[in-house]
Amino acid sequence: MPTLVMKFGGTSVANLDRIARAAKRVAVEVANGYDVIVIVSAMSGKTNELVGWVNETSPLYDAREYDAIVSSGENVTAGLMALRLQEMDIPARSWQGWQVPVKTTSAHSNARIEEIPTEKINAKFGEGMKVAVVAGFQGISPEGRITTLGRGGSDTTAVAFAAAFGAERCDIYTDVDGVYTTDPRITSKARKLDKIAFEEMLELASLGAKVLQTRSVELAMRYKVRLRVLSSFEEPSDSAGTLVCDEEEIMESNVVAGVAYSRDEAKMTLISVADRPGIAAAIFGPLSEAGVNVDMIVQNISEEGRTDMTFSCPTDQVKRAEKAMQDAKASGAINFHDLVADEGVAKVSVVGIGMRSHTGVAAKMFRVLSAEGVNIKVITTSEIKISVLIDRKYMELAVQALHDAFELEKAG
Ligand code: ASP
Ligand code: MG
Predict the structure, then answer these.
(1) Which of 8, 39, 46, 47 to mutate to test the pocket of ligand 1 (most atoms within 8 A of CB)?
(2) Scanning 43, 195, 252, 256, which has the fewest C-beta atoms within 10 Å of its C-beta?
(3) Residue range of the domain that includes 112
(4) 0.85 exceeded by the pTM?
(5) What is the CATH number of the domain that holds 96?
(6) Whose CA is nearest to atom 6 of ligand 1?
């Protein structure tokens, strides 16, 4: 029988009524002839509550116990979903990560899935089980301890199961009805995309579109898992949601697929560092060890052997970045005159695989921003993305102007 993976996020299993509603969707796919693997999140708000309890009890907690506690929300929804399905006369049972077992690394609170053996679940399908309800977000380390996959990790559980079981598709049920050209809260002209390429989705996810965990998109791209993002509150239909798929499946599209933004960025500049071989390693090594996610980097022109180095990172990591740089200075590893943090910036990006074959997208983006009087502070580009750092107060204006200029309200 063909296999389908259906993942229900926290809002789709927020209470018993919603679990019952999700179970009805599962029943439809069982009737369509699928063996279904259901991946569930915890009830919405539950994981945050559990994380809060951990922090209150032990601020410098043992990450193995964090995982033991924080993974428990999914156990409850998996059991309830299995019971609900049984009440509908559908043979179903729940599986916690360790029972499958979902084998992960030992990186507690941020583990990676290494292997999902399919034998046990397939044996049960062979015996007549119709639905395997799996607790998302969790696994087991080589040491036999419970692990979790990082916040939002049940998306990754779902894609990994779809890859391991060769599922026909992986449907991600969430509280939005698909992937949009930009955040509809910023412009009402934002349009739902019918299809988006893996690479575009990967950029949008890592640029802050919260709809899918970035790692789940990476996995889907690697194993070519067709992903559909759709709302569990809408009536089912074939055109529902957005299909994240190989670019070959997309016949026509705009050069730019979407405009993404990230509000909480900071721009840090090290003034007057020695311009010598190894200086970048001496700066960014300690930042990475301190857990600072450096995004954009610019090294300015050097004068008399000294230069300024600018980088961006999330605002909540500014303190950590400052400490890492002051420590590196104190140890003599680097030397700089001053460290200036600008916490009032935001990043705006345009993304699209069409940029590979169309020139002029960057020039147009800069023209549009200049016409709005928006000053660009840092620019980075990749093959399918252009990002700029601007003053945060212009962020919404920039997103709206770019959405208009690239005519994203119209389908390509
Ligand atoms: N419940 C976990 C979280 O809130 C995992 C997930 O829902 O994806 O992060
Ligand atoms: Mg999520």
Answers:
(1) 47
(2) 252
(3) 3-175
(4) yes
(5) 3.40.1160.10
(6) 152
